[in-house]
């Protein structure tokens, strides 16, 4: 060993001994340094290929900061998050699609306001500033978004005289494909202002405009025998291969969100705005119902807020699109964001960021969870018995749930969703 090497080795040993001494002195305070990287946990709704694409992007965000990230994907997101909160061990970041749930978490003090960099990407209707305890703050930011006001048909199939494919089963959340129908009909028949009042609990369920949306849905579906009704109630919203394939030749058109394109990734399909099918008013054709997956911080660790900032940034979105297969490439809220490369995805992105004049967040996702769940159940019951007497009974029950939810909100920690958090122009 030469003299230069001995000097370098001696300095290294001196530094190590100093570090070790510092650790030993700090042991009693629990402050001894840990050489292991800190791991932040992200809880989200994606599993299978979707989950793998997101997880791959997440791992590639590691840039030597000493932080590592792990992803937990589950189809029972609400139940999993609730159990973790009750156990006092929430994830650092959770990705939710329900604004109603996010508002409740903010009121309960579970959420940490986001940093300024992330809030710059959070705008209505995806992520409004929320009034909580007298302050206006941003508590979540969209990671991916979807366009809902769409109708799918096999290419070459005429647009007119649709025979509708309907699958309402979705495990614990069965019924939501029907709520999408009613929401879309109300939006295009009565407009964004009425839709916003209804979504935020200001408009009764027994209001004639809301009631008409339910009966219009039944009229559009047409007469159905018991076998057809039972089949729709027990068929998954995606079917074994997508409803256009699973239920043919009995149906020709499907009302479904943009996410369904992954089922038809290798099929020749046509996707159109839903407005032309719903009997709405022409002045509301530029309004579209949308949904989003929003990231919120449940940890006091500043690194969790920094992670949300990175997840909502251009690099993460570029990586995510690159790691996802055709049909699974996500949509993002602004025209300048990376967008899907498949033909169907590009068409939908063009509507979302170009053609649309008003975007209205999924009304049932805006509603308090109790109202939303009752809405899901009522849709299933009405689909099985679409009579006027049955509808009046169901709407009365929903009004009772709406009133109880409003009373609970009044008694809870102050906080409400502004009207701009439901409908807004694209890009803020």
UniProtKB/TrEMBL annotation:
Residues 407-428 are annotated as: Disordered. SUPFAM superfamilies: Periplasmic binding protein-like II. The keyword Signal applies. The keyword Signal applies. Keywords: Signal. Gene3D superfamilies: Periplasmic binding protein-like II (3.40.190.10). Residues 1-31 form the signal peptide. This is Alpha-glucoside ABC transporter substrate-binding protein. The lineage of its organism: Bacteria, Bacillati, Actinomycetota, Actinomycetes, Kitasatosporales.
């Amino acid at each position: 060993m030469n003299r230069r090497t001995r000097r370098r080795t001696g300095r290294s040993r001196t530094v190590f001994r100093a570090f070790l001494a510092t650790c030993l002195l700090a042991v009693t305070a629990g402050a001894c340094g840990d050489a292991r990287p800190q791991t932040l946990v992200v809880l989200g709704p994606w599993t299978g290929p979707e989950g793998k694409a997101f997880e791959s992007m997440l791992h590639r965000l590691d840039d030597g900061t000493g932080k590592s990230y792990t992803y937990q994907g589950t189809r029972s997101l609400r139940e999993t998050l609730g159990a973790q909160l009750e156990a006092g061990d929430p994830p650092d970041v959770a990705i939710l699609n329900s604004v109603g749930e996010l508002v409740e978490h903010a009121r309960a003090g579970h959420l940490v306001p986001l940093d300024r960099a992330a809030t710059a990407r959070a705008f209505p209707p995806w992520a409004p500033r929320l009034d909580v305890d007298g302050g206006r703050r941003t508590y979540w930011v969209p990671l991916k978004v979807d366009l809902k006001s769409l109708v799918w048909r096999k290419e070459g199939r005429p647009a007119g005289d649709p025979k509708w494919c309907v699958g309402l089963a979705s495990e614990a959340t069965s019924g939501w494909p029907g709520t999408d129908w009613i929401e879309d009909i109300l939006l295009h028949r009565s407009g964004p202002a009425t839709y916003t009042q209804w979504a935020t609990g200001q408009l009764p369920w027994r209001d004639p405009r809301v009631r008409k949306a339910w009966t219009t849905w039944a009229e559009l579906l047409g007469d159905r025998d018991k076998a057809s009704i039972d089949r729709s109630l027990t068929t998954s919203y995606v079917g074994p291969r997508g409803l256009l394939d699973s239920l043919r030749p009995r149906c020709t058109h499907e009302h479904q969100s943009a996410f369904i394109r992954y089922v038809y990734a290798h099929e020749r399909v046509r996707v159109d705005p839903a407005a032309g099918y719903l009997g709405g008013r022409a002045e509301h054709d530029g309004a579209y119902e949308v949904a989003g997956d929003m990231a919120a911080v449940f940890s006091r660790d500043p690194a969790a807020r920094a992670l949300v900032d990175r997840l909502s940034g251009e690099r993460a979105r570029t990586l995510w699109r690159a790691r996802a297969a055709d049909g699974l490439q996500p949509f993002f809220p602004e025209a300048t964001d990376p967008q899907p490369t498949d033909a169907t995805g590009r068409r939908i992105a063009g509507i979302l960021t170009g053609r649309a004049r008003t975007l209205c967040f999924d009304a049932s996702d805006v509603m308090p969870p109790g109202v939303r769940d009752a809405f899901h159940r009522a849709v299933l019951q009405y689909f099985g018995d679409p009579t006027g007497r049955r509808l009046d009974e169901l709407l009365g029950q929903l009004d009772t749930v709406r009133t109880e939810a409003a009373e609970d909100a009044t008694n809870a920690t102050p906080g409400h969703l502004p009207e701009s958090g439901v409908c807004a122009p694209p890009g803020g």
